[in-house]
Automatic annotation (TrEMBL):
Pfam families: Tetraspanin. The keyword RNA-binding does not apply. It comes from Oreochromis aureus (Israeli tilapia). InterPro entries: Tetraspanin/Peripherin, Tetraspanin_animals, Tetraspanin_CS, Tetraspanin_EC2_sf. One of its GO terms (cellular component) is plasma membrane. This is Tetraspanin. Gene3D superfamilies: Tetraspanin. Its main location: membrane.
């Protein structure tokens, strides 16, 4: 009798693992639901991307939470396999990004230039570009003259815009003494020679500045990706551990 009792006690579902997995999914679920809306990025509507990502995260979080609470091995297996697939895709994307980094750089140039053209067409896109140029202290993909691609900022004689031969205010070097943003600081600035421009605006392109930022923060960026990967592996291990416990308990019934 005592041996049977010990066998049953050794094959029980760990409440610690069960609720830890539940909490893991809640955190994982909430952390993925950040909202940022941009109506058009170079012809691609990112609303579909957010719908797909949101749908995947909802299904994954639902399977993990309900599977852990209800001790449902089917949902737990689905959760662990799906999370493993996401981990594999992230790993593959990282390897491909390293191998095809020149191609990715070309695509980034194409992406930025396309959205420079559409700068005034969408307020969210405009805010995104302004944020990028301010954060990385840059202007255009390769330099301020990339703004010739935009119908409002190009330097052609037929351009009636007051912003002709200018750049957005986010290209301007900020004066720490100014409390109010001067949105007209970039007017006519590209009519000056290169040396004069450097006094008023950032003259480095955002592609180069982004690369420099990655190099300067390589350890932090790598640490974030490694941390996310370890969390995913941890989640898979928790789910598999819980499945093993449930199977062991069922085997004693």
């Amino acid at each position: 009798m005592s041996r049977k009792h010990r066998q049953f006690k050794g094959a029980e579902v760990s409440c610690c693992v069960k609720y830890f997995l539940f909490g893991f999914n809640i955190v994982f679920w909430v952390s993925k639901h950040s909202k940022f809306q941009v109506n058009n990025l170079g012809g691609f509507d990112p609303v579909w991307l957010f719908i797909v990502v949101g749908g995947v995260m909802f299904i994954l979080g639902f399977a993990g939470c309900i599977g852990a609470l209800r001790e449902n091995t089917l949902l737990l297996k689905f959760f662990s396999v799906f999370l493993g697939l996401i981990f594999f895709l992230e790993l593959t994307a990282g390897i491909l990004a390293f191998v095809f980094k020149d191609w990715i750089k070309d695509q980034l140039n194409f992406f930025i230039n396309n959205n420079v053209k559409a700068y005034r067409d969408d307020i969210d896109l405009q805010n995104l570009i302004d944020f990028a140029q301010e954060y990385w202290s840059c202007c255009g993909a390769h330099g301020p003259d990339d703004w010739n691609l935009n119908i409002y900022f190009n330097c052609t004689d037929r351009n009636p815009s007051r912003e002709r031969c200018g750049v957005p205010f986010s290209c301007c070097i900020k004066d720490p003494a100014e409390d109010v943003i001067n949105t007209q600081c970039g007017y006519d600035v590209r009519q000056h020679v290169e040396l004069d421009r450097q006094r008023f605006i950032y003259t480095k392109g955002c592609v180069g500045q982004f690369e420099k930022w990655l190099q300067d923060n390589l350890i932090i960026v790598a640490g974030v990706f490694v941390g996310i990967a370890l969390l995913q592996i941890f989640g898979i291990c928790l789910a598999q551990n819980l499945v093993s416990d449930i199977r062991a308990v069922k085997a004693n019934w």
